[in-house]
């Protein structure tokens, strides 16, 4: 699933490519991707792009009037073809929505077995229900230790679940929650209300450092290689059975929320293998 560092890089790249361009055509290949039935995609034809921004894990294409909000979901991504017809290698995932600009073509793709990409046409991004409920963004310059304390302290909920809860922290998913917890040396299963002041301080520092470093590292990477760059940079996520680079212990898999997470028992759970 695309998370905030990759979506930030994607937004910056698209902002450079399409700001000032005009939409010439639209094609809704998969009707289930369209979430605002009362505003047809065809109404975008002729609109000029004012900019592209990230909101949590969402893309916001700002128009002269209104916004196109895109959720890439679990398996979504984009393919870009420039005005000369030169296409980057964006893989073979089917396109669900196609936006044609005078400067190129943007395809929203989905590689999953079910439709996870979503598109909203709206006057304000926060009118999209999920965006209206987003919590603070750890990549925001004003993100603070107090925000972490308020979101975590007193919560009888597993820490990994809190990190992925978009109402608590915007933009973090399965992969970066694993990376953050490993950096902070915290168990994914410990409840928020059991963390000490020092542990919450480590959590805040890890959120800031892991996401900040990832965002800087992804900046400028071509769209078609961004997802692989994320995979290649993971320290523990997706590394089950491999050696932990911090301590040399074995990284373990953990079934969590319908997917698989990874952690290092030596670094995070005082040697105890949790399930």
UniProtKB/TrEMBL annotation:
Cofactor(s) needed by this chain? Zn(2+)
Q: Which transformation does this protein catalyse, written as a reaction?
A: Hydrolysis of DNA containing ring-opened 7-methylguanine residues, releasing 2,6-diamino-4-hydroxy-5-(N-methyl)formamidopyrimidine
Query: Could you confirm whether the keyword 4Fe-4S appears in this record?
Result: no
Residues of the Formamidopyrimidine-DNA glycosylase catalytic domain: 2-102
Look up the domain of life of the source: Bacteria
Q: Which family does it belong to?
A: Belongs to the FPG family.
Give the protein name, as stated in the record. Answer: Fpg/Nei family DNA glycosylase
- Organism from which the protein derives: Microbacterium kribbense
> What lineage does UniProt assign to this protein's organism?
Bacteria, Bacillati, Actinomycetota, Actinomycetes, Micrococcales
């Amino acid at each position: 699933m695309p998370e905030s560092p990759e979506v930030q890089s994607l937004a910056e790249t698209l902002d450079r490519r399409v700001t000032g361009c005009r939409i010439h055509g639209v094609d809704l290949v998969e009707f289930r991707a369209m979430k605002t039935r009362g505003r047809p995609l065809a109404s975008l034809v002729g609109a000029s792009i004012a900019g592209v921004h990230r909101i949590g894990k969402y893309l916001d294409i700002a128009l002269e009037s209104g916004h196109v909000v895109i959720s890439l979901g679990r398996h979504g991504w984009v393919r870009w073809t420039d005005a000369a017809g030169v296409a980057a290698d964006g893989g073979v995932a089917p396109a669900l929505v196609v936006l044609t600009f005078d400067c190129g073509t943007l395809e929203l793709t989905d590689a999953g077995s079910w439709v996870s990409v979503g598109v909203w046409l709206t006057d304000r991004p926060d009118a999209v229900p999920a965006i209206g409920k987003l919590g603070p963004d750890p990549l925001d310059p004003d993100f603070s230790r107090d925000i972490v304390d308020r979101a975590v302290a007193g919560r009888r909920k597993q820490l990994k679940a809190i990190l992925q809860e978009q109402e608590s922290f915007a933009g973090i998913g399965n992969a970066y929650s694993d990376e953050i917890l490993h950096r902070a040396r915290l168990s994914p299963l410990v409840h928020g209300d059991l963390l000490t002041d020092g542990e919450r301080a480590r959590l805040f520092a890890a959120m800031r450092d892991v996401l900040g470093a990832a965002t800087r590292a992804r900046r400028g990477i071509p769209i078609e290689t961004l997802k692989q760059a994320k995979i290649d940079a993971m320290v523990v996520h997706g590394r089950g059975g491999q050696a932990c680079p911090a301590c040399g212990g074995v990284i373990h898999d953990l079934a969590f929320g319908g997917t698989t997470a990874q952690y290092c028992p030596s670094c995070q759970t005082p040697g105890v293998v949790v399930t």
